[in-house]
Design brief:
This protein is α/β, with parallel strands linked by helices. It is built from 10 helices and 14 strands. Helix content is 36%, strand content 18%. It is globular, with a radius of gyration of 20 Å.
Length: 349
């Protein structure tokens, strides 16, 4: 297994593409469909004697352009099979329209969040500037569900549905001893590692709420995904950005605790300011935002407010949320794990 890191000028951090080159050749994720990133991937594959036409399969962790953007072009070059979870399939094969290209969905979302007109225009201008290049050509996809097995690069990958960041985000669990050219992190004792896409990152926390507005109860879904990662106790995780994670369970527990901390901050904002919209809560949490963060900030705030509303801690009145229980048991709003007492998931997680 080889990791190829690609530049990313639109989202957070370098993208990781993983090459599995055994009896067949496969990629896990592809990078964004920008010319300079395409050339980086071409050059990175060339170092291992691989071209787009040699790729037999592409396993996508999720639909976001920085992970799936080049899948269609790679498929066109060599007729590769492209695998993606059924909940994200329509956004890879082009049968669904993502938020950044759907003006009606934008309007509904921004109204729900209470986003001011000037900031809507600013975010729309950002979308218009980047959206035409990011997603690349659609791919014919093979959809999978949770627990199904994909053969990629001679390796059996077990699909692990980890929704939250997107509706269909999935990790791929595998036996590291079966991967050509890969030395298991835990040596001879290793039994299971995983590609985790953006479900688990070594720095920062994956955005929830703004990254895919289709996800119902996004924070609750993501919290359960994190608890599932803790429970699987992988020997290592290979994420969609930056570097390998050598203690995935602890990292997942840390991010889960981070969301407990953030929930307490959201409650504090409402307690101090009175009823507020997702946009206003976002401003209190994150301050001024630009670029893609104009979407991610209020989306994150909305996911927490929505989670609190489902628990009866806040009530929604139009676009504003009013605190009705100023001292809830926040821990009870999230799944528990055996590592909860060992981590500190502050807002720096």
């Amino acid at each position: 297994m080889k990791r190829i890191q690609l530049g990313n000028t639109v989202f957070e951090g370098e993208n990781d593409v993983y090459l599995l080159d055994g009896e067949t050749t496969a990629l896990v994720d592809t990078g964004v469909a920008l010319p300079e990133v395409r050339e980086e991937l071409v050059d990175g594959l060339d170092e291992y004697g691989v071209a787009f036409a040699d790729v037999d399969a592409v396993a996508l962790t999720h639909w976001h352009p920085d992970h799936a953007g080049l899948a269609g072009e790679i498929q066109a070059a060599g007729d590769a099979d492209v695998y993606v979870h059924e909940a994200d399939a329509g956004l890879v094969d082009g049968s669904e329209t993502p938020l950044f290209a759907d003006r009606d969905l934008r309007r509904e979302t921004f109204e729900r969040w209470g986003m001011p007109d000037a900031d809507r225009e600013r975010l729309t201008a950002f979308f218009d500037a980047v959206s035409t290049d990011l997603s690349g050509r659609p791919a014919d996809v093979t959809a999978f569900g949770d627990g199904e097995t994909i053969e990629a690069g001679g390796v059996e990958l077990e699909a692990l549905h980890l929704p939250g960041h997107t509706a269909g985000l999935s990790g791929f669990a595998f036996d590291p001893r079966t991967v050509p050219g890969h030395e298991p992190v835990a040596g001879a004792d290793a039994t299971e590692e995983a590609f985790t896409g953006d479900a688990l990152l070594p720095k920062y926390t994956p955005n929830v709420g703004g990254a895919d507005v289709r996800v119902e109860g996004a924070l609750a879904a993501y919290a359960e995904s994190l608890a599932r990662i803790v429970d699987r106790d992988f020997d290592a995780a290979h994420p969609g950005h930056r570097w390998r994670i050598d203690d995935p369970s602890r990292r997942a527990a840390t991010i889960l605790d981070h969301h407990r901390h953030r929930t307490r901050r959201v409650i504090g904002v409402l307690d101090e300011s009175g009823p507020a919209t997702a946009w206003e809560v976002s401003a209190a949490l994150f301050g001024d935002l630009d670029g893609i963060h104009v979407l991610h900030g209020p989306g994150e705030a909305f996911s927490h407010l929505d989670h609190l509303a489902a628990a009866g801690v806040v009530e929604r009145d139009g676009t504003a949320y009013r605190l009705v229980d100023p001292e809830p048991d926040v821990d009870a709003l999230f799944p528990t794990t055996p590592l909860d007492d060992l981590v500190d998931g502050s807002d720096d997680a």
